[in-house]
Amino acid sequence: MKKKMNIKRTKLKYVEVYEEILKLIKDKNIEPEETIPSENELSRLFNVSRGTVRQAIALLKEDGILYNQQGVGNILLDPKKNQKMGMESINVPIFDFNNVEFTNVQFVTEFQPAGIKMKEFFERDENFIIMLINVKYYIKDQVAALLMYFINYDEVKEYDLNLRTKSELKEFIDKFIVRKIVKSDLNFQGFKARESIANKMNIHVGDYIIYFSEVMRKQDGTVAFYRRSYFNPNYFTFYMTRK
């Protein structure tokens, strides 16, 4: 009679870190809407790579335990809030996947009439004005990422915004626009940069870039805004966690 082998199954490292972060949240009595330690701190605490910590945090977001806020960090989600997280999250992904810390962020705002393509994205036939916010994330003198928010100006007029103030624009995007979104129709691809994008990102024509195109929808299904995101792959590592 053959003897059965006892096979010991070990957990993936990022799953172990996932469980350790949950334990840390409990032991430190971290309350909802409070930040957890940074990725670097967690990396040192658990003696693992920052990439492993990011995978664990991505899983925590997917499970609706954490969410990320730009410039603040990873925050413990209040379970009373009905927000989409993880793979359904519409938060800007660059703070989850950047390999190098950003040194500067630049906002530029402009207005333009909606063309045929924008009318298609916004599913509207009548004429309206688009507020375009260009957000560039720098690592020293190099543009690491370019995010372009195309917003129906009707969504903006109700707010008394100083469009020249970076902090107000950021708050408007984070709180008044992004928080309204419950669904994101996402298109993801990689391609060689054309001249217009190459000039905006200070790269060469033909350099490879990663591109996200997203249509952001509110609870009633209407389009709140459309976003194009361009990433220099030298500064980002993207991954997906599937269940």
From TrEMBL:
Native source organism of the sequence: Peptoniphilus indolicus ATCC 29427
PROSITE patterns attached to this UniProt entry: HTH_GNTR
Domain (HTH gntR-type): residue spans on this chain: 11-79
Coiled-coil residues: none
One GO biological process term: negative regulation of DNA-templated transcription
Gene Ontology MF terms in the entry: DNA binding; DNA-binding transcription factor activity
Record protein name field: HTH gntR-type domain-containing protein
Pfam families: GntR (PF00392)
Keywords: DNA-binding, Transcription, Transcription regulation
SUPFAM superfamilies in the cross-refs: Chorismate lyase-like, Winged helix' DNA-binding domain
